[in-house]
Design a protein that fits this description.
Elements: E1 5-6, E2 21-22, E3 28-29, E4 47-49, E5 61-63, E6 68-69, H1 71-90
Length: 91
């Protein structure tokens, strides 16, 4: 399977599983566990802020989807799996 990596599109900083982002509602969570949707209030974040330089990031905002690397490879593999399942059901 293609491995999807997560990194800031502006500085290549990679978040760890323990990193936490905060929503305007006050909830903190790992934004990449939910594709940018706050599990407390349901707000969908279209942009994600990189951590501050003191933590290794750049502190800048980028579209959330731009953080995901190798999505094209993952998507092509998923399409192949779906086609195989559809063909198996047709037989």
């Amino acid at each position: 399977m293609a491995e999807v990596k997560i990194a800031c599109p502006k500085c290549n900083w990679e978040p760890t599983p323990s990193d936490q982002w905060s929503c305007t509602c006050g909830h903190s969570w790992h934004t990449f566990d939910t594709a940018g949707r706050c599990p407390a209030c349901g707000k969908q974040w279209e942009e994600t802020q990189c951590f501050e330089p003191a933590v290794g990031g750049c502190g800048r905002m980028s579209p959330h989807l731009d953080w995901y690397r190798n999505l094209d490879g993952w998507l092509l593999e998923e399409i192949k799996r779906i086609r195989i399942r559809v063909l198996e059901k047709a037989d």
